Amino acid sequence: MTGSNLTKITAPNPGPLTLSGTNTYVFGGVAIDPGPDDEAHLSEVAAASAIETILLTHRHPDHASGATRLAEMTGVSVLAFGDGIADGDEFSGLVAVHTPGHAPDHVCFFHEGSGTLFSGDLIAGEGSIMVAPPEGDLADYMESLRRVRNLSPSRILPGHGPEVADAGAKIEEYVSHREEREAMVIKALESGAETVEEVVALAYSEVPPEMRPYAGRAARAHLEKLGRSLP
After folding, report:
1. Is there a domain that residue 87 lies in?
2. DSSP string of 70-108?
3. pTM
4. 57-77 tens-digit pLDDT
5. Domain count for the chain
6. pLDDT tens digits, one per residue of 22-43
7. What CATH number corresponds to the domain at position 50?
8. Looking at the domain assignment, is residue 200 inside a domain?
């Protein structure tokens, strides 16, 4: 897989969780994650290559809301986990790997020949990924990280942010970050935190005020994994 047969097109939907926008990838007749329903973006995707199949890493709107329009433009099918995609299925050399946690239907796509992992929202090019109950499940997410680690990818093409050249180091960083944060949440509980807000104040003290609502959702994921429920 080289730059000559791989096209990355970033949608115009930047934000705190989407970074510079959703990355759409076109490779070997496959379009991965059309992104938002933005006509200009989807027209660029449709013109990038002869698309034969549209694949979704998961059904969140920032990745999938443009799928219907792109399907109409190209006359091809949209496939997602449980709807045309099963764990281990292969599409143009890309193997689907079921990786729940961020969402129950999340899949990554792995190109073994080049060691490339299309990570969707399992791993971002920068920062961390939101795992928020009830849809998100942190125990599943950690298992999914370990599963892709066992694939030994060499690079990661994420759903948001830049390419990751050292995949192994990034995956280890993600695992360590969650383990360290869980230890901080446990310490907050042991210090007497009785609400999610108090857990955030102690375990996410470095998070800027504008990101505290997201930290609260992340804290709930850790608490759920630990079997704790706080107001």
Report:
1. yes
2. HHHHHT-EEEEETBEE-TT-EETTEEEEE--SSSTT-EE
3. 0.93
4. 999 999 999 999 999 999 999
5. 1
6. 999 999 899 999 999 999 999 9
7. 3.60.15.10
8. no
